[in-house]
Amino acid sequence: KELKERGLKVTTARIQILEIFQVHGIRHLTADDVYSPLIRQGSESGLATVYRVLTQLQQAGLLKQVYFESGRAIDELDDGEHNDHLICTDCGRAQEFYDQAIEQRQKANAQERGFQILEHSHVLYGRCLKPDCEYRPGPRMTRKKREDQRTRHKVC
């Protein structure tokens, strides 16, 4: 339904990719993160198709792409709400947050300097403090755990 409302033809690839974000509750994914579950589901879509569909879903306003200093890009559902991000420098996991006080202070700073904010990105880099974080790579991280971490989104 959302695809048709946005002027997109309903295709298997578009449905499968959108469902990965909607049904599984996965919030932040790279193209590779989207591709892995498609392969496990037996999809015939290739990585080039994933990139193309992600771009189409972004252009239709269903997804938005966020870029980080590392050059890494993730896609997330575009719910129309602004959010900022915390990025773990150990595992790369992105956690979004919104803080009204920060938003108000940024606006005030801009106004004090004669600016009107049109758009902004606020990204904080750090490490989660949980010693047994399942997303942190290490000697106990198996291939299965690494693959699972790409297809799930949990808070450290």
Explain how this protein is built.
- The protein has 156 residues and is of the alpha+beta class.
- It contains six helices and five strands; from the N terminus they run ααααββββαβα.
- A three-stranded mixed beta sheet has the order 4-3-5, with no helix packed on it. Strands 1-2 form a two-stranded antiparallel ribbon.
Brief summary:
With 156 residues, the chain is α+β, with helices and mostly antiparallel strands. It is built from 6 helices and 5 strands, in the order ααααββββαβα.
Task: List the defining traits of the structure above.
156 residues, 38% helix, single chain, three-stranded mixed sheet, alpha+beta
List the helices and strands and how they pair.
Blueprint: H1 2-5, H2 12-22, H3 31-40, H4 47-59, E1 63-67, E2 73-77, E3 84-88, E4 94-97, H5 100-112, E5 123-126, H6 143-151
Parallel strand pairs: 3-5
Antiparallel strand pairs: 1-2, 3-4
Helix pairs in contact: 2-4, 3-4
In quaternary terms, these chains amount to single chain
Number of strands: 5
**Strand line-up in the sheet with most strands:** 4-3-5
Low-confidence stretches: none
Largest sheet: 3 strands, mixed
Q: Give the radius of gyration.
A: 18 Å
Count of helical stretches: 6
User: In what range is the share of β-strand residues?
Assistant: 5-15%
Identify the overall geometry.
globular
Helix share bin: 25-40%
Task: Report how far the terminal alpha carbons are from each other.
Answer: 34 Å
Give, in order, the helices and strands.
HHHHEEEEHEH
Structure classification:
alpha+beta
What is the average of the pLDDT values? Answer: 82
